[in-house]
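Inverse folding, one chain.
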């Protein structure tokens, strides 16, 4: 027997449904605002509330998955993106993010498959960059170079692609081409810094904010697995001379990509500013190991060794730094001092021939400072006297 629902019950149900939809839209609006400000964890909470009130919001499901990815809830994000593969409207985006998740998990064949599926529809501008990274990580270097060149042709201002291309070329032994890409990387780094709203807010706080205010605005940016965002943050903080906070950004980046010579150099330079010479030495050495012809890293490494009194290591390091940066007057002066020190040591221990060789090398450098000239003259006189003795 068919029973009619009471009119009052139907009316209440309609009101409740309408209220629920209104509430869902309110949460969705707030979530979108937080999303645009890159406050992803807060946005995720609002997207979830919107879905609780109205499960039929496809954009909320999609953006919730993106938020979960951004604040590193990778497994829940993987599950949501896997579900989005079934919808043609979201399949390409889902492939992109699943590729990113697989790349983080070092599942390189799966990552390559997802990025290749994603790139056919191109939901983002950097699919080819991440595909190039997946090839690079799986040691398919020729494929990596090919894809990264295609990425740069489409988006020439993406410093990340230039940097990764440089590393791939370096591993292939193409040092000149690699050096050119490394140089272009540093030139373009500023473009990335300007692109993030969160980085802008952090940057705007640096001129007058206290340490605690900087931590509140910039600290959350450290909670990411995006090495490029961390590098941009490190540059921003370093330029503002907030070196302690910059070290946190570079250290986090180095933990995620320890083979990057650029990152290890920037961490070393930041430690140098903080007078942490041990940290500077370790990371400058790592930068040189990753890229032997890196001029700035060699200069920094030689300078740190000199300051630490590690003379046996400092002399060859300063020679190499000078050969790579012959117009750097600072490194030339340090090399001159180191040559004089060793020549004096040889003279004191009867190694006159070695001392004379070092003086000849010293004379080929730029004109010496007054103190250096006096030390050299005294040394030459002592060696001449030694020769004249019977």
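Residues assigned per position:
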């Amino acid at each position: 027997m068919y029973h009619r629902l009471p009119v009052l019950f139907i009316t209440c149900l309609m009101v409740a449904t309408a209220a629920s939809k209104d509430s869902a839209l309110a949460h969705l609006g707030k979530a979108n605002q937080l999303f645009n400000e890159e406050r992803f964890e807060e946005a995720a909470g609002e997207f979830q509330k919107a879905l609780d009130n109205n499960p039929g919001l496809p954009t909320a499901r999609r953006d919730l998955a993106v938020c979960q990815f951004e604040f590193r809830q990778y497994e829940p994000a993987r599950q949501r993106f896997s579900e989005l593969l079934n919808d043609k409207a979201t399949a390409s985006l889902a492939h992109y993010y699943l590729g990113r998740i697989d790349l983080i998990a070092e599942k390189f064949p799966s990552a390559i498959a997802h990025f290749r599926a994603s790139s056919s529809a191109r939901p983002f501008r950097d699919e080819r960059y991440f595909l190039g990274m997946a090839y690079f990580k799986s040691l398919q270097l020729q494929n990596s170079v090919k894809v990264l060149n295609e990425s740069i042709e489409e988006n020439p201002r993406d410093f990340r692609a230039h940097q990764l291309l440089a590393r791939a070329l370096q591993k292939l032994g193409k040092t000149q081409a690699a050096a050119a890409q490394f140089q272009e990387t540093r030139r373009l780094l500023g473009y990335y810094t300007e692109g993030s709203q969160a980085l802008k807010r952090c940057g705007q706080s640096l001129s007058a904010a206290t340490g605690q205010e900087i931590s509140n605005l910039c600290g959350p940016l450290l909670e990411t697995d995006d090495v490029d965002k961390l590098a941009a943050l490190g540059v921003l903080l370093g330029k503002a001379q907030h070196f302690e906070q910059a070290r946190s950004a570079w250290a986090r980046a180095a933990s995620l990509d320890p083979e990057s010579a650029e990152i290890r150099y920037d961490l070393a330079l930041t430690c140098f500013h903080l007078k942490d010479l041990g940290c500077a030495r370790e990371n400058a050495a790592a930068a040189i190991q990753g890229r032997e012809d890196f001029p700035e890293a060699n200069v920094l490494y030689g300078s740190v060794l000199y300051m630490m009194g590690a003379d046996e290591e400092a002399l060859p390091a300063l020679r190499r730094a000078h050969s790579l940066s012959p117009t750097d007057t600072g490194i030339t002066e340090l090399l001159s001092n180191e040559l004089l020190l060793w020549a004096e040591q040889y003279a004191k221990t009867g190694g006159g021939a070695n001392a004379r060789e070092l003086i000849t090398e010293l004379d080929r450098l730029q004109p010496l400072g007054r103190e250096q000239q006096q030390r050299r003259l005294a040394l030459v006189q002592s060696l001449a006297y030694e020769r004249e003795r019977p």
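Residues 125-193 form a domain with the Serine Threonine Protein Phosphatase 5, Tetratricopeptide repeat fold (CATH 1.25.40.10). Residues 208 and 214 are 9 Å apart (CA to CA).
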